[in-house]
Amino acid sequence: MADAIQSRFWVGRLIFVLVMLALVFALLLPLNTQPRGWAAPDLLLCVTLAWVTRRPEFVPMLLVAAVFLATDLLFHRPPGLWTALVLILTQMLRARATGLRNVPFWLEWATVAMGIVAVTLANRMVLAAVMTPQAPLGLTLSQMLTTILCYPVVVVVAYALFGLSRPALGEVDARGRRL
Asked: Which terminal Cβ of the chain has fewer Cβ within 10 Å, N or C?
């Protein structure tokens, strides 16, 4: 019994890492070199928030930090700023994960949406304060909006493909603690 719980724990982490690697690979491919008038959703953020709200034990803080610091470096963003903001958001959602287990999906979505708005605006304000060149406000807002709208799709896909669901009442983690 404990071996099954332990293996599910590590398989969940492995799936998260593989999904993130696939998304980073897809984002680095030069598929379209023409600029668009809108920004695509931040699927890395959506996947991370879905995993943290649904199964926080699968996504430890150091794993989130490593993934987002690597993406900061790969995507030529200021190293550590987006990582720190995402870490703050994930830790806040991790602290609320047990409370979000019993609420309707729309309330979970609203909580995640407020977090996405907060980190996007905080990122913009910090970059403006240190006078770093940044994307136009319209692109940032369109990315924020599409990320919020993509969250339910990511949750449905994660549930359908990987069985990512909220923990059941009485479910325990690898150490025997109640989730």
From this structure: N
